[in-house]
Amino acid sequence: MNTGSDKPGEAVVTPDETGAGEVMDERELGSRAPEFIKARRVLHMSWQVCVFVVGLAVVVAGIIMLPLPGPGWLVIFGGMAIWATEFVWAQLVLRWTKRKVTEAAQRALDPKVRRRNIILTTIGLVIIAVLVGIYVWKFGLEMPWKIKDQ
User: Full-prediction pTM beyond 0.85?
Assistant: First the structure.
């Protein structure tokens, strides 16, 4: 990934609409293991294996929670955050995800989009109310499995 600098750890400054610079990422990519672990190759490799296994367990638990009750996506992103403490690819995925979520939040706050969403929600609620009204008018308040043949 091109960060706009040849030095690790430097932040990219991009101009925004007002012309002022905004710091995009202030953390450098790479392992966040303690120095005494990084200094020993075998210990660092063991550390990475443990981080990968723990992150994998959390991600798998999140995937299992997707169809079942539970915060599946939140747990998956938690597993990605665990991986991001050690692996550059996970850090890049998290940066991309954070950027996309921020862009979606900005779009959702746009007054035109909010107005459209309110109108669509209102139309949907009116349609549901009409359908419920037709059902109650035709069958009364009886449940469908108790309706006698007509």
Answer: no
